[in-house]
Design a protein that fits this description.
13 strands; 9 helices; Rossmann fold; 305 residues; 7-stranded mixed sheet; alpha/beta; 6-stranded mixed sheet
């Protein structure tokens, strides 16, 4: 089974992750599939190719290398922009005056006319939210038939989706890059991130926010639909519950981050998942933890509901 799926539907190249694997194997499988499609004539070139689906940065470079000379222009789907209900692509490659770099292309293919779940992972600083976010993403990917979880980093702390895996390999380099990428949490950033959340309409959206019940987080989180509260301090959970409820968010999980714990504890799965997750440390793969897997099932259930 390939680790990366690629298919052509009209002038749209549908891409997406399949069996979990490291980035090097994903690139190899993507290259083999593209070579197969080019050799068979399935990818024969034309005026415009639109690419729809999640891809790692190395896979993006690979696809551009393989197909950019076959098509006059290439546009990439961006779920964070465009008119509600329709798919919008951004022109990223162009060899023709017919399409300008940065030009917005709206397709006739409507997105599902429903509000897909936009789940905020929130709670106090240093609770392990970014670690949980990455483990949760991997746990969702491991569920057969689950949608790919689209992650929005709505906090300028420099700790993007790349951080967890990088920290597993080289913690010092990961922390160095985080400090270099860190920016201030301004009102302007909050408005920009809120726009990302508002426009996101993939089947499952996960939003990572800052660790304060601030006005900036209020602006961002009010665009979401659900919330997961993660806190390393039990006494701060009520503050976050009240904050989420004031924004009209449905809290689907309340989790205590037990840094010194040795195992996860699931107290209740419905109507709200409650319990604890142990030892959320940077660089750890937590996708196999019982609480993380239970939370993944809850989120996939939301996407199917």
């Amino acid at each position: 089974m390939s680790t990366y799926n690629i298919s052509l539907e009209g002038d749209i190249l549908k891409v997406g992750f399949a069996k979990p694997a490291h980035g090097d194997q994903i690139v190899k499988d993507a290259a083999a599939r593209l070579d197969e499609m080019i050799a068979s004539g399935e990818l024969s070139g034309g005026k415009l190719l639109m690419i729809d689906g999640p891809a790692s940065l190395p896979v993006c470079y690979l696809i551009a290398h393989k197909v950019s000379e076959l098509y006059s222009a290439i546009a990439i789907f961006d779920p964070k922009i465009g008119r509600k209900g329709y798919k919008t692509f951004i022109t990223a490659v162009s060899h023709t005056p017919a399409y300008k770099i940065g030009e917005i292309i709206e397709t006739n293919e409507p997105q599902k006319d429903k509000i897909n779940p936009k789940v905020v992972i929130c709670g106090p600083r240093k609770s392990g939210k970014s670690c949980l976010r990455e483990g949760l993403k991997q746990a969702v990917i491991g569920i057969e038939g689950a949608p790919y979880p689209y992650v929005i980093t709505a906090c300028p702390d420099g700790e993007g989706a790349w951080f967890s895996e990088a920290a597993q390999r080289d913690p010092e380099l990961a922390m160095q890059l985080k400090e270099e990428y860190k920016a201030k949490f301004t009102d302007e950033f909050a408005k920009l991130a809120a726009g990302w959340v508002r426009s996101a309409n993939t089947p499952l959206n996960i939003i990572d926010v800052g660790g304060k019940t601030s006005e900036q987080n209020r602006v961002i989180m009010r665009e979401a639909t659900h919330a997961v509260i993660l806190s390393g301090e039990k006494e701060k959970i009520p503050e976050w519950q009240e904050f989420c409820e004031s924004l009209g968010l449905k809290v689907v999980a309340i989790i205590y981050s037990d840094i010194d714990g040795e195992r996860d504890v699931i107290e209740e799965e419905a109507p709200v998942l409650t319990g604890s997750v142990h030892c959320l440390e940077r660089g750890e793969d937590v996708s196999g933890r019982e609480m993380v897997k239970a939370l993944a099932r809850v989120l996939v259930g939301l996407s199917r509901g």
